[in-house]
C-alpha cells in the first residue's frame, strides 16, 4: 500500500441498505457514476457485502458499501441478512433504499429502528419514483417519521434526483474532526523517534504494515526525525546516534529484547499501544489486561483481529499469544477462540477476556462498537501490545509516555 493512499479505516463509510430489488446497487452506481456493483432483475443478486474504496466529491476518500437484501429468505438468506446488519457497525452514513412501487415494508421499519438506535446519520432514498404513485414520498415520510431533509425521491434508471441525493449524503457523512494522533503530540520538532520493525516471515514482502506507515507519517507531521531499524540493530544504533532519542517505538512481538536494549531514560512504547490510544481504548485495555490474573482452567479467551491474513506457522494471534498466556498462568488449561475481519460475536458472555489487535483496519465507529459490546456485557477487553507488555513485566514502562495512564498502574 502506498503511503499516499488514505487507509480504509480513515475513510467515510457509506452503506446502502434495503430489500431485494429495491435498487440498492443501482442507486449506489448512480451516486458514484460507476458500475461498482452488479445489477440484475433477479432477486438476491448481491449475496455478500461489497466494499469499494474511491474518491467521492465533495466528500473525498470514502468506502461505498453495498449489502444483501434485508428481506432475504431461508437459512442462507438469514445469514445474508445478518451480514447486512453487521455492516451497520462500520457505517458512518446510511442510505436506506425503498422501492417506491411497494412502499415501506416491515423490514424497512426494523432496519430504520436499528439505524436510529445506533445513531447513524441517514437518508431514505425512494427509488423508481418514475413508476410510483405521486403520494409515495409523503406516505414514506409519515410511516418512518422522517424530516424533509432525511428523504430523497430518485430514479436510478433515469438519473433523476441523484445529484440531490449525493448532496444529502455529503451533508450527513462529514467525518468528525478529532485531534487524535498516534505520536505527533508527543514529539517536538527535531526530536528523534527510533522505530523497531522486525523483518520475519510474517512481515509483508516489500512494504511496512499500516501502523508502521502511519507512525512514520505522524512523526514527519511533527517535524521530528524517524529512524527505522530491526530489533537486532537497535543497541548498536542507539550508540551511533550521538543524540539521545525521545522515544523508542517497537513492534509488540519484539518487546522483551527491545526493552532490554533501551536505556531506562528513553521512553519506550509500541505501535499497538499507540494505536489503542488513537482508537480511544487505551485506558479500557490497561484495565482489561489484569483479567489475565484471574483466569482459571476451562476459561475461554477470544483473540480477535480486524483484518484477515494468511496464518503463519508461528502466527501471533493463534500461536504466540496463547503460548504466552499459558506460560503466564502457569500452564492453566485455557481455551482460545479466534475471529478475524468483520466477524465479531454478538454474545460475548462466554469469554473471560477479549484480546484484540490494534484495529488499524477498523474505522472508529466499528472499533467503538466492539469496545461498547464488551463493556456492556461486562467482559474485559485489552489489545495485543498491552497484553504482551503485561506478561513480559514491562507494561508500566511502556505507558510512561502517557502520565494519565501511568498513574493507574
pLDDT < 50 stretches: none
Query: Which of globular, elongated, flat, extended, rod-shaped describes the shape?
Result: elongated
| Total domain units | 3
Order of helices and strands: EHEEHEHEHEHEHEHEHEHHEHEEHEHHH
Q: Quickly give the CATH architecture of the largest domain.
A: 3-Layer(aba) Sandwich
Percent strand: 15-25%
Spatial strand order of the main sheet:
2-3-1-4-5-6
Largest sheet: 6 strands, mixed
Helical percent range?
25-40%
What integer value in Å does the Rg equal? Answer: 24 Å
Q: In total, how many beta strands?
A: 14
Number of helical runs? 15
CATH superfamily membership of the largest domain, which one? Answer: P-loop containing nucleotide triphosphate hydrolases
CATH topology of the largest domain: Rossmann fold
Averaging pLDDT over every residue, what do you get? 88
* Helix-and-strand structural type: alpha/beta
Tell me the distance between the termini: 37 Å
Describe the 3D structure.
The chain has 409 residues and is an alpha/beta fold. The protein folds into three domains: 8-172, P-loop containing nucleotide triphosphate hydrolases (Rossmann fold), CATH 3.40.50.300; 184-275, Rossmann fold, CATH 3.40.50; 281-391, Rossmann fold. 34% of the residues lie in helices and 18% in strands. It contains 15 helices and 14 strands. It has helices at residues 24-32, 74-87, 106-117, 136-143, 162-172, 210-221, 234-241, 255-261, 271-279, 282-288, 316-328, 364-376, 384-391, 395-398, 403-406; strands at residues 12-18, 50-56, 60-66, 93-99, 122-127, 151-153, 192-196, 225-229, 247-250, 267-270, 300-304, 335-339, 353-356, 381-383. A six-stranded mixed beta sheet has the order 2-3-1-4-5-6, with helices on both faces. Strands 8-7-9-10 form a four-stranded parallel beta sheet, sandwiched between helices. Strand 4 (93-99), helix 3 and strand 5 (122-127) form a beta-alpha-beta unit. The longest helix has 14 residues, at 74-87. The radius of gyration is 24 Å and the shape is elongated. The two termini are 37 Å apart. The model has no long low-confidence stretch (mean pLDDT 88).
Amino acid at each position: 500500500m502506498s503511503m499516499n493512499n488514505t487507509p480504509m479505516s480513515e475513510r467515510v463509510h457509506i452503506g446502502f441498505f434495503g430489500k431485494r430489488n429495491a435498487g440498492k446497487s443501482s442507486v449506489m452506481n448512480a451516486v458514484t457514476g460507476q458500475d461498482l456493483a452488479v445489477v440484475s432483475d433477479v432477486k438476491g443478486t448481491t449475496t455478500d457485502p461489497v466494499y469499494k474504496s474511491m474518491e467521492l466529491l465533495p466528500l473525498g476518500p470514502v468506502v461505498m458499501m453495498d449489502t444483501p437484501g434485508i428481506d432475504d429468505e431461508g437459512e442462507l438468506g438469514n445469514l445474508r441478512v445478518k451480514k447486512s446488519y453487521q455492516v451497520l457497525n462500520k457505517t458512518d452514513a446510511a442510505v436506506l433504499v425503498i422501492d417506491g412501487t411497494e412502499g415501506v415494508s416491515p423490514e424497512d421499519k426494523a432496519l430504520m429502528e436499528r439505524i436510529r438506535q445506533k445513531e447513524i446519520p441517514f437518508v431514505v432514498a425512494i427509488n423508481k419514483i418514475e413508476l410510483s404513485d405521486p403520494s409515495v414520498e409523503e406516505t414514506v415520510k409519515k410511516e418512518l417519521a422522517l424530516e424533509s431533509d432525511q428523504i430523497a425521491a430518485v430514479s436510478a434508471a433515469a438519473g433523476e434526483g441523484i445529484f440531490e441525493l449525493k448532496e444529502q449524503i455529503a451533508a450527513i457523512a462529514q467525518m468528525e474532526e478529532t485531534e487524535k494522533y498516534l505520536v505527533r503530540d508527543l514529539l517536538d520538532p527535531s526530536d528523534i523517534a527510533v522505530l523497531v520493525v522486525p523483518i520475519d516471515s510474517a512481515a509483508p514482502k516489500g512494504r511496512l504494515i499500516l501502523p508502521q506507515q502511519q507512525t512514520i507519517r505522524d512523526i514527519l507531521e511533527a517535524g521530528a526525525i524517524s529512524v527505522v531499524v530491526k530489533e537486532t540493530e537497535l543497541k548498536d544504533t542507539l550508540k551511533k546516534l550521538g543524540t539521545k532519542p525521545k522515544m523508542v517505538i517497537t513492534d509488540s512481538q519484539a518487546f522483551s529484547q527491545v526493552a532490554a536494549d533501551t536505556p531506562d531514560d528513553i521512553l519506550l512504547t509500541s505501535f499497538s499501544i499507540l494505536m489503542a490510544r488513537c482508537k480511544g481504548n487505551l485506558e479500557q485495555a490497561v484495565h482489561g489486561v489484569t483479567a489475565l490474573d484471574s483466569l482459571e482452567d476451562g476459561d475461554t479467551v477470544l483473540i480477535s483481529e480486524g483484518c484477515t491474513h494468511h496464518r503463519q506457522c508461528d502466527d501471533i494471534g493463534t500461536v504466540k499469544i496463547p503460548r504466552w498466556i499459558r506460560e503466564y498462568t502457569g500452564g492453566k488449561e485455557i481455551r482460545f477462540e479466534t475471529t478475524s475481519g468483520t466477524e465479531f460475536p454478538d454474545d460475548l458472555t462466554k469469554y473471560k477476556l477479549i484480546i484484540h489487535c490494534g484495529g488499524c483496519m477498523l474505522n472508529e465507529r466499528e472499533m467503538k462498537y466492539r469496545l461498547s459490546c464488551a463493556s456492556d456485557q461486562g467482559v474485559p477487553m485489552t489489545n495485543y501490545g498491552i497484553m504482551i507488555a503485561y506478561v513480559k513485566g514491562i507494561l508500566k514502562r511502556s505507558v510512561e509516555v502517557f502520565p494519565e495512564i501511568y498513574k493507574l498502574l
